[in-house]
């Protein structure tokens, strides 16, 4: 850290800096609190979506067992994702993803040549795939919020533990130095004044001494 100048100008500069830091800190603290709340919401969302995924997975496993029966549809093509639809919103200064939907590759098969349960199976397997995508996007959202929270927490700690205490210490150091300088100046002024007064008294005393003529 560079040595600060022990001057009145530096004192004013440090006071301005302290004022700016203390003014901005509550904004950072509020953002940190908002991010903490959003991260907690994201964790709960992932928990809920994971439970839904588990439910759809069980239904999908039951349906997948039917695929052992030979049909015109290949199992790997049933729930093949073509495109994930999402949008982004700003939460506490960070862009986070939100699920909109899933586009699957089109399946071409003859209704006449496939068993009647195939349509229902496709729905269940695609529901399971959609549930997985929802979990993935929710995890991306949480990760983005946690990254921002870490950065904001670092800045809050920097302000609270380093920058503000340092500015206060600098102000105290400069004030003590300037105070000592002022006391020293007052002391020198008193000494000078005493010397002047002593000189005046000596002059007056010399002027008042009787003169003797010889």
Identify low-pLDDT runs.
none
Report helical residue fraction: over 70%
Strand content: 5-15%
Sheet with the most strands? 2 strands, antiparallel
> What is the distance, rounded to the nearest whole angstrom, between the alpha carbons of the first and last residues?
78 Å
- Number of extended strands: 2
> What shape does the CA trace take?
rod-shaped
User: What does the average pLDDT come to?
Assistant: 84
Rg from alpha-carbon coordinates: 40 Å
Topology pattern, helix = H, strand = E: HEEH
Which structural category fits the helices and strands? mainly alpha
Strand order of the largest sheet: 1-2
What is the overall number of helices?
2
List keywords for this structure.
single chain, 214 residues, mainly alpha, two-stranded antiparallel ribbon, 2 strands, 70% helix
Describe this entry's structure for a reader.
- This protein has 214 residues and is mainly alpha-helical.
- It has a domain at 25-161.
- It is 70% helix and 10% strand.
- The chain contains two helices and two strands; from the N terminus they run H-E-E-H.
- The chain has a two-stranded antiparallel sheet.
- A hairpin with a 2-residue loop joins strand 1 (81-91) and strand 2.
- Helix 1 runs antiparallel to helix 2 (117-208).
- The radius of gyration is 40 Å and the shape is rod-shaped.
- It starts with 7 loop residues before the first helix and ends in a 6-residue tail after the last helix.
